[in-house]
Every structure is written in structure tokens, then in C-alpha cells.
Amino acid sequence: MKNYPISGARWVTAIALVCGLIPSMVIAKDRSSTTSYARDDSERLLAKSSFVSIPVSDSGKEWSLGAVLHVPYGFEGKRPAVVIIHGSGGVDSRGGHYANALNHAGYVTLEVDLWAARGVQSAGGRPKSVIETLPDAFASLNFLTQMTGTVDSERIGITGFSWGGVVSMLSANRAYREKYGTGVQKFAAHAPFYPVCWGYNVVRGYDFKNLTGAKILIQAGKADVYDAPETCSNMVASLASADAALVELVMYDNATHAWDRREPDATVPDPASHVGKGGMVPLRYNAAVTRKSTEKLLEFFAETLGGQSLP
């Protein structure tokens, strides 16, 4: 099995040092023992990285969506691509981890920052509804579609975590695709992580039905207190047969919300947790489940978008 190192882990360490969360002498020791100066060890040898600005508009408003574009080296012709959407806390280690794994398999990745243009500094300042960020997802799809010499416009998927998982779910809705998409563009595959299953077809606007026909992989944890253990399976079972046939659900034992988040473990409040009753949410990293969910994601996108390992 492969290990997928996280791009940007050094930024987490730097932030922790500035905030006084980790003694500086420990960090200095860790850095000297883990930093490699070998020519072949740079993560940037895997893919060309670009910081891009994507125009977004909705209801008379316009803004620029910031994102990091990674185009893997070592491949010829048009490549499949994946849009990566962060959670309520903003860009973190999860996006870098999955982008790295996908780049290894030959996918172009576009990791977006929903919050910067909106001035959001923390989860508490997020928009009132995930639906407000659907224009960003479809603008990202349009951006990749325009990369005609690099990206295969028929093979663009989307994945995301928590808030981004909800974006990944709702973007599979035919009505939202028609409202926010450009022309006939649509995502070819959707892979949401722990997307808070209890709200779909219950909360106004969170419609997960009349789907576009693209395959959907939902990965969620049995210890995630946003839902009850059976919530996601009940939600899938409640779908019309044509829509249910598009969905694959994978549930992991001993997995909390954000099991793949490598920042320090935390417990955070969220009014949407506990099946909408609100309360505290534990976030606990689980390396074994992260490995499984990474391998499952790669398997799913290989089946739906196509992809290969580096030659």
C-alpha cells in the first residue's frame, strides 16, 4: 500500500510554533530529523502548481474564487480532473492529502478556498447555507472545462469534506446543475466525505433527488455525531430507485467526523450536529480509516473518470 504525504504540513507546524502550541526546541529537532535535501524528494516535482483566480457570479453579485491548481507531470494528452472543496474550518490538511494522492494517479486537481473572497475567518462566520457556495463549485467546473489542452471536460469529478461534502452532494442535483452550471456542463462523478446525511430532502433547499446521472460515492463514519449510525443508509434507502442506483455508501467503524484531518484533535460546537439538535462534535484523526478512504476514493475515480499511476 502507498503512503500519501501531505503537502503543506510544514505550514501547520509553522502556525503551531507561532501560536506557542508546540515548544520551539521540539519543532527544531523534528524538522532536522525529517527534512530531506535530496533532489528527488521535493513534492513539487510531482505536479506543476499554480495559484489561480476563478470568476464567480450569482444573483447580480460577482467575486473571485481563489484556488490551487495542480497538473501532474509525466502524462500526455487530456487528463481527468477533480475539484476539492474544504470544510467549515477552511483549507486544511485534508485537501492537500487527497490532492497529492490524486496527482500521483494522474488527476489534475483544483483545491478551492470558498472563504477568502467572503472574508470568512472561522467556521462561525460561514454562510448561512451551503447552497450559497454552489456557484463556486460550478464556476470551478467551468474553469477546468476551459483547460482544453490539459483537461478532459467529460471526466471532471468533485470531492469535499463536511461543508464541501454537502457541496459535492447538492451539485449532483439536476435542478442546481441547470441553475448554476454553464451550458450542458456537469460533474462526471461525486465523492462526498461525511456530508451530514440527515438534512437531505428534509431541510428546505437540501434536495438530493432528480440527480444528473453521475455516480456518487458517500464515505461516512459510524461515530460521526452529526448523524445517527443509520442515518446515511436510511437516506439512501429513501431515494427513488433510479437515484439510489447511482449511490454507493461506505460506512467506517470507529470513524468520527473529519477522521482524515491531521491537525490536532478537537471538539467543536455546531448547531447542525446531532441530527439537527446541535451540540459538540469530536474530530479525531484515524490513520487506518484515512488509508481506507483514500484507497476507496482512488478506486471510485478510476472507475468513473479513469486514471493511472505515474509511469
Kindly describe this structure.
α3 (93-104) links the parallel β3 and β4. This protein has 311 residues and is an alpha/beta fold. It has a single domain, classed as Alpha/Beta hydrolase fold, catalytic domain (Rossmann fold). It starts with 8 loop residues before the first helix and ends in a 7-residue tail after the last helix. Helix content is 30%, strand content 24%.
Features:
311 residues; alpha/beta; Rossmann fold; eight-stranded mixed beta sheet; two-stranded antiparallel sheet; 10 helices
> Count of helical segments?
10
The ordered H/E elements are HHEEEHEHEHHEEHHEEHEH
CATH architecture: 3-Layer(aba) Sandwich
CATH superfamily: Alpha/Beta hydrolase fold, catalytic domain
CATH class: Alpha Beta
Write down the CATH topology: Rossmann fold
Largest sheet: 8 strands, mixed
Q: How many E-type strands?
A: 10
Average pLDDT, rounded to a whole number, is 89
Segments where pLDDT lies below 50 for 5+ residues?
5-29
Q: What is the gyration radius calculated from CA atoms?
A: 19 Å
Number of domains: 1
Label the overall shape. Answer: globular
Helix content: 25-40%
State the distance separating the first and last CA atoms. 17 Å
Instruction: Quickly give the structural class.
Output: alpha/beta
- Strands side by side in the biggest sheet: 1-2-4-3-5-6-7-8
In terms of DSSP E residues, the strand content is 15-25%
